[in-house]
Amino acid sequence: MKDNVFEIPKSKESGIYMIYNVDLNKVYIGQTNNFYQRASSHLSQLLSGTHSNNELQNDFNNGYRFAFAILEVVEKNKLLLKEKQYIYVFREKSIKTYNQESTEQIKNKLFYEIVCPEIDKLHRNFHNKFGCNIALLVNCKPETRINKCIEKGME
């Protein structure tokens, strides 16, 4: 058996994991509904040379040592958000990642997952309270926005 093969966790919980290149201090961050199945799948693909992440596959083929680690057990409905948060934090700490999305794409996903639901909530609250369309207010210049708020009694 190869020296760089990682241990498969027994846990079948959902959450965020990383495949850690011990030699290069580089990580792949992922999400799963079942740690055991996902780790097994990654390892099987790496051993057969068919992993979809070419950079990770190449480093594995070159004999670098890897570890599989559970970062956090997470509810299934929060997996995507948590995964993006971890990737972003690792990159902000200057830890290289195998993840292929650009930091800009990750920022956009975080924005839409965190900020937009809050804007939607704000919009619903304003619409219910004042009968106005906050989306129109957000898209106009500040002075126009203030005038529209005054017209609607929201100053």
Number of helices: 6
> What order do the helices and strands follow?
EEHHEHEHHH
Radius of gyration: 22 Å
In which range does the helix fraction lie? 40-55%
The secondary-structure class comes to: alpha+beta
Order of strands, widest sheet: 3-1-2-4
Proportion of residues in extended strands: 15-25%
Strand tally: 4
First and last CA, distance = 71 Å
Mean pLDDT: 82
Largest sheet data: 4 strands, mixed
Low-pLDDT stretches are 139-155
Coarse morphology: globular
Please, could you describe this protein's structure?
- The chain is built from 6 helices and 4 strands, in the order E-E-H-H-E-H-E-H-H-H.
- It has helices at residues 35-48, 54-61, 79-92, 103-130, 134-138, 142-151; strands spanning 15-21, 26-32, 66-73, 96-97.
- A 4-stranded mixed sheet has the order 3-1-2-4, sandwiched between helices.
- Helix 3 packs across helix 4.
- The longest helix is centred in the last third of the chain and has 28 residues, at 103-130.
- The protein is globular.
- The N and C termini lie far apart (71 Å).
Helix-strand blueprint:
Layout: E1 15-21, E2 26-32, H1 35-48, H2 54-61, E3 66-73, H3 79-92, E4 96-97, H4 103-130, H5 134-138, H6 142-151
Parallel strand pairs: 2-4
Antiparallel strand pairs: 1-2, 1-3
Helix pairs in contact: 3-4
Labels describing this entry:
155 residues, four-stranded mixed β-sheet, alpha+beta, single chain, 4 strands, disordered C terminus
